[in-house]
């Protein structure tokens, strides 16, 4: 190995036990390095910051700084039920797990005017680009909304999503952080879906989730009466709204 015999047998004689115990006591409530060092100084410990930091690093107590996301000011918008379809769509995510423990996400999209479930996309991963593809598909089938109401999730505040909405002349209505009631229509839909499907079954794979979800969505849209829609189904109420618009 071409190393000196004394180097091979050398053992470090530093004993940092006292420093480690002091750091451990000072870090009881999760303070960072400089706060810990100030505490040790106040306690009369004479170690300089270089030694304390060396031991601190060796103990793996260092913390990664988490940048705080700065969102622009969100204005409270009234939750108004539109008088015609495709004025405002509400979108939101809901998540659950399959039997093996893997998490999946469901992107729910409803039309605020008639409460129709426009789409429910299920996947293990749902980045902003995937959300855009889903929206492009259902817009081609159902028409384009004027507004999209959503929370401040990373998929919805992503620049690619905002650019896509701007390019398609779709206005994004962001709710205020921590105010899910401002997106009450989709929150109520999420609750109905969770009680009827997610909390009711144990899924062996993602295909079972998609199959049961599609069956439930068909029943929700075409068979299930809604008190808020004069006991009509969402499909029936949408047809009623279209007739009213044509009669004007």
Automatic annotation (TrEMBL):
Transmembrane segments: none
Matches recorded under SUPFAM superfamilies: Ribonuclease H-like (SSF53098)
Pfam families: HTH_21 (PF13276), rve_3 (PF13683)
GO biological process: DNA integration
Residues covered by the Integrase catalytic domain: 81-242
PANTHER family according to UniProt: INTEGRASE CORE DOMAIN PROTEIN, LOW CALCIUM RESPONSE LOCUS PROTEIN T
Annotated NCBIfam families: transpos_IS3
UniProt name for this protein: Integrase
Protein source organism: Fermentimonas caenicola
């Amino acid at each position: 190995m071409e190393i000196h015999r004394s180097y091979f047998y050398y053992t470090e004689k530093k004993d940092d036990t006292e420093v480690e115990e002091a750091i451990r006591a000072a870090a009881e409530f999760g303070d960072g390095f400089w706060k810990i060092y100030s505490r040790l100084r106040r306690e009369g410990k004479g170690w300089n910051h270089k030694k304390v930091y060396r031991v601190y690093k060796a103990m793996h107590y260092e913390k990664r700084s988490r940048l705080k996301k700065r969102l622009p000011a969100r204005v409270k918008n009234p939750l108004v039920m539109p008088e015609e379809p495709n004025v405002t769509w509400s979108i939101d995510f809901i998540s659950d797990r399959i039997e093996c423990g893997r998490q999946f996400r469901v992107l729910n999209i409803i039309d605020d005017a008639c409460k129709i479930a426009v789409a429910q996309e299920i996947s293990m991963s749902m980045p902003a680009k995937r959300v855009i593809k889903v929206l492009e598909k259902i817009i081609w089938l159902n028409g384009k909304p004027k507004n999209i109401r959503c929370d401040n999730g990373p998929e919805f505040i992503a620049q690619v999503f905002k650019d896509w909405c701007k390019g398609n002349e779709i206005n994004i209505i962001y709710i205020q952080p921590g105010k899910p009631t401002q997106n009450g229509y989709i929150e109520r839909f999420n609750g109905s879906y969770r009680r009827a499907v997610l909390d009711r079954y144990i899924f062996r794979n993602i295909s079972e989730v998609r199959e049961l979800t599609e069956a439930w969505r068909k029943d929700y849209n075409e068979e299930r009466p809604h008190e808020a829609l004069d006991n009509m189904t969402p499909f029936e109420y949408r047809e009623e709204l279209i007739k009213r618009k044509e009669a004007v």
